[in-house]
Specification:
By secondary structure, the protein is mainly alpha-helical. The protein has one domain. It is built from nine helices and six strands; from the N terminus they run ααββααβαβββαααα. It has helices at residues 4-19, 25-43, 62-69, 73-78, 84-89, 113-126, 131-138, 144-151, 173-190, and strands spanning 53-55, 58-60, 79-80, 91-92, 95-96, 101-102. It has a two-stranded antiparallel sheet. Strands 3-6 form a two-stranded antiparallel ribbon. Helix 1 packs parallel to helix 6. The protein is globular and about 45 Å long. The N and C termini lie close together (12 Å).
Length: 191
């Protein structure tokens, strides 16, 4: 059985690679972060199921970062991932440009309408952005990465509840907490 979050994460990567330009690893991680935190803000759950940590250059889904070093079968079947030697040959300023290439087509069947709309919005906004731009945007003051980095420090987990605010498209903290607890309970019951 395929984990639905895993299937969504892989299809999110495919979507972003096909719908944005110069989508290297840094840009990809920020796109996933923006989509997951926007969805959590509206619904109380992320799309991909990834957890993000406050690294120097912004939020990083550490599990995925590690998987790119030694890709499991599902990733290597879906993407052509550059080798360490290829990465060293593609230095860009002080970044390693890590470009994935898709082996599979995007499958929208695992996504809700809201999730697809968020993927579309995020791709449209950041279509032309480069890694440096993405880092700058992810570092905006009082956003989840910034709050975590300043208050907890580097390498600390970014709490999704930091996405909740007083804007019209945001759940209240109480409703978000309630939905989050329901989801955690379902995970315990159904695995």
């Amino acid at each position: 059985m395929v984990n639905n979050n895993r299937e969504k994460m892989i299809n999110m990567i495919i979507y972003f690679l096909k719908n944005t330009k110069r989508c290297g690893k840094t840009k990809l991680f920020k796109l996933l972060y923006f989509a997951d935190f926007k969805h959590f803000k509206q619904t109380g759950k992320s799309i991909s199921g990834l957890e993000y940590y406050a690294w120097d250059r912004g939020p990083v889904p550490v599990t995925l970062f590690e998987e790119f070093k030694n890709p499991p079968k599902d990733l290597s079947e879906c993407f052509i991932i550059p080798t360490k030697k290829e990465l060293e040959q593609n230095q860009e300023e002080d970044y390693q440009f890590f470009e994935l290439k898709c082996r599979k087509k995007f499958d929208d069947k695992c996504f809700s309408e809201r999730e697809l709309k968020i993927l579309e919005e995020i791709s449209f906004i950041y279509k032309e952005a480069c890694a440096k731009d993405m880092i700058e945007v992810s570092h905006l003051k009082n956003q989840p990465w910034d709050k975590t980095y300043r208050e907890k420090g580097i390498l600390e987990k970014i709490d999704f509840f930091l996405a909740i605010d007083n804007t019209i498209d945001s759940l209240s903290k109480e409703v978000a907490k309630e939905r989050f607890e329901e989801i955690e309970e379902m995970k315990k019951i159904f695995g």
